[in-house]
Amino acid sequence: SSQAVTRLYQALQARLQPQGLNIDDLFPVMGRDRRGTLEWRSMPKGLTVKTGTLNEVSALAGIIPTQERGTVWFSIINGGPNFDRLRGEQDKMLQRIAQHWQISPQDLEPGPNDDIQLGDPQRNQRPMPPQ
Q: How far is the CA of 106 from the CAs of 29, 79, 102, 103, in angstroms?
C-alpha cells in the first residue's frame, strides 16, 4: 500500500540518521542525479524519489522538502497499461504540490560521491574528515 511504502521510507531515514546519512544519500534526487529512472521525468527539482514499475502498476515514493510544511512524505501507486500517461500525471501532481507549498532550497550540486552510479556501495562511503 502507499501508506506502507511511506512508512518504510520513514523508517529507513530514521536508521540512516545516526550514521550521518539521509535518504538522499541512497535514492536519486531530481535535478542532481541525471541518469536512470529520473532522466526523462519532469518532476520538480529537489525531490528525493524511488520509482517502480511492475506489470500494470507504476509507483513513485519519496520526499518533498517544502518551506510551508517541512518534509512531505508521499507515495503514489497507479494502475493501468499506459505508463507514460501515469508517469506524466504523477509528475504534474508533484509539480502542483511543489508550487503550492514551495520547495525548500537544497544543494543540488553533485557531491563527492555522486559521480558513482546509483546502486554502487561506494556511493555511500563518506570521506574521512582530516585529522
A: 10, 32, 12, 9
